[in-house]
Amino acid sequence: MTTLRLAIVGAGPAGIYAADILKREARGFDVSIDLFEQLPAPYGLVRYGVAPDHPRIKGIINALRDVLDGGAVRVFGNVRFGQDITLDDLKRHYNAVVFSTGAIKDAELDVPGVDLEGSFGAADFVSWFDGHPDVPRTWPLEAESVAVIGNGNVALDVARILAKHADDLLPTEIPDNVYEGLKASPVTDVHVFGRRGPAQVKFTPLELRELGEVPDVDMVVYDEDFDYDEASKAAVATNKQVMVIDRVLQQWRKREPGTASRRLHLHFHARPVEIVGADGKVTALRYERTRPDGQGGVEGTGEFREVPVQAVYRAVGYFGSPLPGVPFDERHGVIPNHEGQVLDDDNQQMPGVYATGWIKRGPVGLIGHTKSDAMETVQHLVTDQASWWSPEDPSEEAVPALLRERGVEYTDLDGWHALDAHEIALGEPAGRARVKVVPREDMVDVSLRRGATQRV
Questions:
Q1: pTM higher than 0.90, yes or no?
Q2: Mutual orientation of helices 13-25 and 57-68 as an angle, nearest 10°?
Q3: What is the CATH number of domain 2-104+320-410?
Q4: Which residue, 251, 233, 241, 205, is CA-closest to 292?
Q5: Most CB atoms closer than 10 Å: which of 2, 89, 188, 259?
């Protein structure tokens, strides 16, 4: 039986699903899979990129846990690719590698004022409120009025967390430092801006409904945004998702002005053109009103408005990061590839190198897309046996020995189980799902059973 030693770099859904699919699809192969993750904990954006008040995330994590606990994959956490282990190292010990490193940086927004104090990338804010170990413990929540630019799920997550009272997040796994920061926030108004109309939004009905269920927060929509053109009317009539979104928004239009202490405003047909500032700080968002162009898109009207705000969050998409020794498309933020087969600078297939997930196709799609995406990559990998690497030392002990020799404090699956149990135990006295351990050093200490100092 042919042996396949595979490295997967990135332990989010894309990498874990690729491991699961390969184990099932690689019939006739003796498959051995090592999963490398730069953080001490697995699950990627499911743990560090989704708001903690999403109940459905628990089901996704349970499915990922089942894969890891199935015994087919070794996990090496707290291992940075390009620093602790390199592409040359992988070639010496594996037949192939799949990169599933995702996209964690904010896409750029090219408007004046983007560098003002008080202008933030949504990805950085999400990392903060999800307790990512590599971001600062504090966040400057000093604005009473805030703008969120974007009409996708991340924009709604950011808006909801900003508008929601911190006490309403206590049943979740929100870290203590995040709770304290949100508790002190003076925010009264959160404004979400999207350049298209209500029938062209990118968020899902579930995300929208969750906004309307936030306690002590009034939803505010504006009648001028609902003058639908024929293309928008057709979208509402023929697309079930758009129909549900429209139904929710129409219900909000009928609500009487409320008396909540906070308001969440949805502005459609609003194309941001400038983040206005004074003395180096954000003072307003300037935008151009748009209108339907008759074809499902929008065009500018030449009418400009300003909304006074003291902070702006840019939620216009994620962007991938380059990896040492691996080709990278600087324009699109992905590893260049053909159906997961990585392409070199001459547009030729790189032997033994594959990609899946957002680093392969860009930051689009939901978990279901990740599974089909991994299937496509794995099918190519299995049939590409002639171009696999021929490792010098494919033994399973070689990589742990290499990491120990380099002084890398790597964590394993047992270590993750220890950290997982520790976080759950921290939450139990207050009846919470868990309390995340945030500092990387503490995560490693708990995983290696050294205890933790609970740094803040």
A1: yes
A2: 50
A3: 3.40.50.720
A4: 233
A5: 89
